[in-house]
């Protein structure tokens, strides 16, 4: 087993063997190798945290998830990094705190600001009349291009018949009580959705939440349907100690709403599975301080998902 963790000192997202992670999942041991290649080799071979008596570094971590194989863990690491880059653009500009800090005096000496060379402003008095005419013409050309692009953009927006209502402006009617927060809310909604008129209202509302590709459509819908706290209590088939999301009438409503946005049943189910499986990671990143609800969808591979499927009674929420 492999884990994906964030090193708190350096803010790096790393893949590490599960046997390097402490039982409370707050610390991780790191080998004392100077070579990156040796460290990566150690990660793949998963040795115990001891090397010829040399002490391993004990790092503070945020545990993000666990995977069956190294390859799946690398995929999870990639998805999390992409999400963090999108949600925190300053991270690409301002480097994180390095694990091995430089001595303060050395750092000061290495980072002395050098004075900028003096810049002599261009003298406009030396510009000929022809130069001025040429510059004015160039400015007119630029202005003309901007106007053409603006007109073209307006035409594209006008021709785009897909209604993209932002989530903040999509307010459910008083008869639609979302998001669901508890199993009691789920049971109540399941009863309400047995009414054809109510079901159509839910489909109409959820289908207007926006999104062009299937991933975004389902993410927008699922964010409105249930909280991450409740999503953690579900998986698709009801394996382990979780409830079966596939058995709900609400799931059929989501399928219908997605179909209205040209997302077929197969893609819809795949994205729902991803969204549910990554609920715990979204919660972890929210605790870390990021907007957890915007996590990209990744299917986690927990041991529970490998257990045989058990029957879930259809009246579980009645």
UniProtKB/TrEMBL annotation:
It holds the Pfam family DUF4806. Residues 105-126 are annotated as: Disordered. It comes from Cyprinus carpio (Common carp). This is Uncharacterized protein LOC109064523 isoform X2. InterPro entries: DUF4806. Residues 174-254 form the DUF4806 domain. It comes from the Eukaryota. Residues 105-114 have a biased composition (Polar residues).
């Amino acid at each position: 087993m492999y884990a994906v963790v964030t090193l708190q000192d350096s803010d790096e997202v790393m893949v590490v063997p599960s046997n390097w992670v402490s039982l409370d999942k707050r610390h991780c041991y790191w080998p004392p190798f100077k070579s990156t290649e040796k460290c990566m080799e150690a990660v793949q071979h998963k040795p115990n945290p001891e090397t010829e008596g040399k002490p391993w570094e004990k790092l503070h971590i945020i545990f993000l998830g666990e995977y069956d194989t190294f390859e799946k863990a690398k995929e999870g690491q990639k998805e999390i990094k992409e999400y963090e880059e999108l949600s925190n653009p300053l991270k690409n500009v301002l480097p994180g705190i390095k694990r091995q800090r430089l001595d303060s005096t050395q750092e000061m000496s290495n980072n002395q600001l050098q004075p900028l060379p003096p810049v002599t402003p261009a003298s406009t008095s030396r510009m000929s009349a022809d130069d001025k005419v040429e510059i004015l013409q160039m400015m007119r050309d630029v202005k003309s291009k901007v106007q053409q692009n603006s007109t073209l953009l307006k035409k594209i927006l006008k021709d785009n018949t897909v209604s993209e209502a932002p989530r903040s402006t999509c307010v459910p009617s008083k008869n639609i009580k979302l998001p669901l927060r508890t199993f009691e809310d789920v049971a109540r909604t399941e009863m309400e959705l047995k009414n054809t008129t109510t079901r159509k209202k839910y489909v109409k509302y959820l289908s207007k939440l926006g999104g062009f590709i299937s991933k975004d459509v389902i993410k927008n819908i699922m964010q409105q349907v249930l909280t991450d706290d409740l999503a953690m209590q579900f998986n698709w088939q009801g394996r382990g100690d979780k409830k079966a999301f596939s058995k709900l009438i609400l799931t059929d409503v989501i399928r219908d709403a997605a179909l209205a946005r040209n997302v077929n049943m197969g893609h819809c189910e795949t994205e729902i599975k991803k969204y549910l499986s990554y609920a715990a990671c979204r919660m972890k990143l929210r605790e870390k301080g990021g907007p957890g609800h915007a996590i990209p969808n990744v299917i986690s591979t927990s041991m529970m998902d490998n257990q045989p499927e058990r029957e879930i009674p259809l009246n579980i929420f009645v």
